[in-house]
User: Fold Trehalose utilization protein from Paenibacillus qinlingensis.
Amino acid sequence: MNITVWNEFRHEKLNAAVAAIYPEGIHHVIAKGLQQEGVNVQTATLDEVEHGLTDKVLRETDVLIWWGHKAHEEVEDEIVQKIYQRVLEGMGMIVLHSGHFSKIFKKLMGTSCDLKWRQVGEKERLWVVDPSHPIVAGIGEYIELEKEEMYGEFFDIPEPESLLFLSWFAGGEVFRSGCTYSRGKGKIFYFRPGHETYPTYHNPQIIKVIRNAAQWAAPIVGPQLQFGKTDPLEKL
Amino acid sequence: MNITVWNEFRHEKLNAAVAAIYPEGIHHVIAKGLQQEGVNVQTATLDEVEHGLTDKVLRETDVLIWWGHKAHEEVEDEIVQKIYQRVLEGMGMIVLHSGHFSKIFKKLMGTSCDLKWRQVGEKERLWVVDPSHPIVAGIGEYIELEKEEMYGEFFDIPEPESLLFLSWFAGGEVFRSGCTYSRGKGKIFYFRPGHETYPTYHNPQIIKVIRNAAQWAAPIVGPQLQFGKTDPLEKL
Amino acid sequence: MNITVWNEFRHEKLNAAVAAIYPEGIHHVIAKGLQQEGVNVQTATLDEVEHGLTDKVLRETDVLIWWGHKAHEEVEDEIVQKIYQRVLEGMGMIVLHSGHFSKIFKKLMGTSCDLKWRQVGEKERLWVVDPSHPIVAGIGEYIELEKEEMYGEFFDIPEPESLLFLSWFAGGEVFRSGCTYSRGKGKIFYFRPGHETYPTYHNPQIIKVIRNAAQWAAPIVGPQLQFGKTDPLEKL
Amino acid sequence: MNITVWNEFRHEKLNAAVAAIYPEGIHHVIAKGLQQEGVNVQTATLDEVEHGLTDKVLRETDVLIWWGHKAHEEVEDEIVQKIYQRVLEGMGMIVLHSGHFSKIFKKLMGTSCDLKWRQVGEKERLWVVDPSHPIVAGIGEYIELEKEEMYGEFFDIPEPESLLFLSWFAGGEVFRSGCTYSRGKGKIFYFRPGHETYPTYHNPQIIKVIRNAAQWAAPIVGPQLQFGKTDPLEKL
Assistant:
């Protein structure tokens, strides 16, 4: 399996507090966490040529992981269109945290993907609400994060196909924090945590979830889909 | 309740066979079928100014019904964006037949909305698979249409929130023919039948379904949604 | 529409604190809240003959509302079987609070319906997560209850067809508090709040939700379902 | 992974036509088809002691496959209760064909699981409608079976969590033929084909689906679920 971890990689260069937590970038920490036998992990970032997502990279990527925040608008529409096409063809996609507002996530969802937020560093507790799902394998009843940005409902997404995590926030809000979708032959997982000023991606349970999600989202050798004009299979 | 029936209204002007069935346009027949006490029905068509969908019309429309086929590309992006915004705000939307390939439906779904098709006039039988849903009120176990265009799976749509009708086609295919979705505060119903060369919208059961769907899709006085930065509700 | 509000009606007789809040029983307060033009509301309680749910009552009931807690085991299996049959035939059912552990709810769900709980009187905030649904009409972004019993995840229910409310609890838990299901021709709504020692059913927003739910759950004139051996519709 | 294939195993002993197709029983053919490295397959049948499903067998079974038809009533309630408990604890379950009317399936679904049927040996075509799902890996756009018993809608089951196959029948009906559910920590797959008088389980594509389903339904090391009275996680 080939995983590509994409990161905007701007906060880490501009904000010393972020750089202290993720000196080589958020993508680097996630990529390291995903390395295991049989898995090939590479990274790509906004400021590379074609954002690091050339046709070759996309064609060979089984699962694309996405972290973006302040520069969503700088992602070129042409690249977004190519990612979209690859998802419909079967590429898995894991959208993290502020990636909820990325062009590609909004395009795949068909909604605004807007939400409430507050960045004061409060406690978040992610409760598992589907204990049968492979993405929660190895996780306890909840994951607790001492300090995170708050995201609150209403989260303007389509009804998830499976809802895996619900977040409780100290400030009084809740959030649908782990949501699965399918689009064409592709599987998508949105996972809420991961504000850049907190060491969330150093948390082994968070990495475990992303790792499970990558396994789950990997493409299957599914049917060769045919569209358009078609002859009858029965005599008419 | 204010319903606006939108029709591309081109086939009826160019094709005598279609004009024979729908002399005043498909929209006219549907609009007539929807008239009842407490419901105000108007129509709009592609070739009107702003496709008949001015800001005022859209603002006052509770449910928009959409039939388009050969001129999807002529619908201006700006109007599509306005319809999209209104759906998220609560306007109901019923997309009919070849409207599956309209810009607005693809934008709301986040998929290609592609499918198989065959236009030879074969038998279609729409089976009810959710007999608890208000959209099937007054319908029997199935609706039979002697001649229709075939649409076949795989239909590239997101998993429906509720699946109400499954079509059987004489040529050997099946199709998810009645699908509901929600997007933001808006409710959407896709309903398959209605090729322009057949008198499908003269069928009282088909009209009954569209009528039920309009009632179902009408906006509710729901919560005033707030997005963006928000203060805590609890002391932190 | 005929609504029957069923209540175990034991706490009110045995516990002065409960009687102070609901002197004539929880069912009485709910029934009063549901009265409006075109709606006929009656009540039934455990200690009546056949628990007040005779064949005639059940046959004429469009929506059955259920509150039970300490005497689930005293509800006779034969009556449970009759209610079950009526739900499959189209009777709507609204299960409140501790009714999660009633025989009828467990039978309809196919799961244990178990959960976490704590009865110390803490704050609950029910967030709306489906602002398009008729059951939340007239409700704001959330409902706040100063004191309630806590119910926490994992709540062992099947994946809801629509998830309408998520609860935040001061003690750190979350809960799927408003869940819809369909079973046969019947529609079911589970709504969490309503511990007997708090005036929850005097809250106009809570009553509003139950009222909306009764409208939503009312049976439709759906298809006459046929089961068993059947002749082909096409020549074989 | 430990798979147990359970079969009623009566038709094969009483009907020469069935015995000709499945001389050692349906369970034997399915079991053989599932054998592969890392998978341990055993069988169990109705007439064994405790139907072959002792506490030890159930405790060690990861996925239980179920074929029954004419003797559903002979399956003891106590064993059904044990299977049910094991599903909630995480054991996967694959229910085949006429198993739709088994005690265990009805108990897990919460509905009658009734349907239409016709046994004349007509053509069935199972269309894939979720090409992203691991259960359809290696399958084309459809599976065609020359002769099968017909099952027709309305199929009285809860709305599937994922709908994978839709059947077309020559006689004019359709059917939701591949449905997934979760119950507690357990995953369930219902798969329609497999009348005893046809060689359906000798079809490599049918076996492929069952094989995929067993992989999908295998339990994960999920959260240790806690129910009942619980202390607050936050200071109240």
